[in-house]
Design brief:
The chain is an alpha+beta fold. Helix content is 30%, strand content 31%. α4 packs across α5.
Length: 265
């Protein structure tokens, strides 16, 4: 029985590194250029229930404890930028969903470079290096801040090199139903919030003192097979291409501009 429960814990670890989660990243910037980065990762209700079903000491290490490991968070902080420190790294329970919240602080946003989902990917690698998949080179968002004006560079990722004769993706009814099940609870968002408010900006998605770089409810991607197929064919051309594709899709926001400016109040 102990071995079986250990296998359940391993199965949950696999779930954590795939698609049954939602992750929210919020950078909060102060007028002096300092601020915080809060990354919140929540499991789906099903994965949370699965974790609850594992008795304490039943074998296998709690995956959430691994994700909340302060040493791993400190390693992630170094990759985010010089002077970035861990304020908090702990497990959380919100609305019946279990997860992890990590809060970083920085003194100068000019030294910060941030990749949406980057810290979670690094934690997943640390938890299970053998299962780390080959990655697309993802460029981080970088910042320049001076005289109350923030310039945010939102570069496209490096395109994946594919052979000229590579087959185009085929999405049939069976594949679509499988994808719907896998991604129904997955959501990722990245926002920048301004503590004292913003005066003006060229950002496409603005609400109060917050701009949205990306907010993707993956279940919405599954509702239109043709758009999903086109997304797979984009080959990481950049944010503008993805933004244009999902311009009128409810539940999906992608910033199209590769350079944003925000004047703080």
């Amino acid at each position: 029985m102990k071995k079986v429960l250990g296998l359940i814990s391993m199965a949950l670890l696999a779930l954590l590194t795939t698609s049954c989660f939602e992750q929210k990243a919020v950078i909060r910037l102060n007028k002096d250029g300092s601020g915080t980065i809060t990354e919140t990762t929540l499991l789906s209700a099903e994965a949370s229930a699965m974790l609850d079903s594992i008795p304490a000491g039943a074998g296998g290490e709690d995956p959430l404890s691994k994700m909340a490991d302060k040493e791993q968070a400190a390693a992630n902080a170094k990759k985010i930028g010089e002077g970035v420190e861990v304020v908090k790294s702990a497990k959380i329970d919100k609305d019946g969903k279990k997860g992890v919240e990590v809060v970083y602080s920085f003194k100068d946003i000019n030294k910060v470079s941030f990749t949406m989902g980057g810290s979670m990917a690094e934690s997943a690698k640390a938890m299970n290096p053998a299962a780390a998949a080959k990655e697309t080179e993802q460029k981080p968002v970088t910042f320049k801040y001076a005289d109350g004006v923030l310039t945010l560079a939102n570069p496209p990722n490096k395109p994946v090199e594919k052979p000229a004769d590579a087959p185009k993706p085929e999405i049939g009814p069976q594949e679509l139903e499988m994808a719907k099940g896998m991604f129904k609870d997955m959501r990722m968002s990245f926002k920048v919030e301004f503590a004292d408010g913003l005066a003006e900006t060229n950002a496409s998605h603005v609400e109060g003192n917050t701009i949205t770089i990306a907010d993707i409810q993956f279940a919405k991607l599954m509702e239109d097979p043709e758009k999903l197929k086109k997304l797979m064919e984009l080959n990481d051309e950049g944010p503008a291409a993805a933004a244009a594709l999902f311009k009128d899709t409810p539940g999906i926001k992608v910033e199209s501009k590769e350079e944003l400016t925000v004047k703080l109040k």
